[in-house]
Amino acid sequence: MSDHKHQIHPDPLKDKGLSAEERINHLQQQVEDNLAGWKKALADYHNLEKDTDKKISQLKDFIQADTIAELLPIFDNYQIALEHVPPNAKKESWVVGLEHTLKLWEGFLADHGVKKITTVGHYFDPHRHESLGMISDAKQKDQVIVEEKQAGYHYGDVVIRPAKVIINNINQ
Questions:
Q1: Terminus of the chain with fewer CB atoms < 10 Å: N or C?
Q2: Which of 108, 110, 114 is nearest to 65 (CA)?
């Protein structure tokens, strides 16, 4: 068994002809440099953690928005089907059940932060709306949405699907 604890290592600074005080100052400078390097590495690590967390969050948002986008046609068709229920059947239990299911759909979207894009009566925004056509009505403001053809949805700042609309264009 070798006895490393009791080996005496030569002082390389002593061999350079430095005094004890100069060696201490040199070693203190090395300690400060090493500490500064360690602090920088730790800060870099924390920044990397924050960047990684942000990218993971963005990826989750993208995946969620993409999944919701795939579900929206089902939601749309469900709403359309309920709009075509004959008035005399509105109180029947199967229609009440369908309406309850629609509320579950709406709750699902709300729970996931998905909101409907405002349309009729608001100004056209090409980032949130898709114009399917125009009318020219001098009684209404220019570039105001007059009809919604298909609902649009957003998740925070991300537009999942733009609203399809008809706008008023006085200069048509």
A1: N
A2: 114
To the question of pTM greater than 0.85 for the whole model, the response is no
Q: Tell me, which fold does domain 115-172 have in CATH?
A: Nucleotide Exchange Factor Grpe; Chain A, domain 2 (2.30.22)
pLDDT digits (tens, 9 = 90+) for 79-90: 888 989 999 998
Residue 158 bridge partners (DSSP)? 155
The region, left, alpha or beta by phi > 0 then psi within -120 to 50, assigned to residue 157 is alpha
What digits encode the pLDDT tens for the residues 32-46? 999 999 999 999 999
CB distance 163 to 130 below 8 Å: yes
State which amino acid sits at residue 94.
Answer: W
Cβ(162)–Cβ(116) below 8 Å: no
Alpha carbons 123 and 168: distance in angstroms, whole number: 9
- The contacts of residue 149 (CB under 8 Å, 6+ apart) are 132, 164, 165, 166
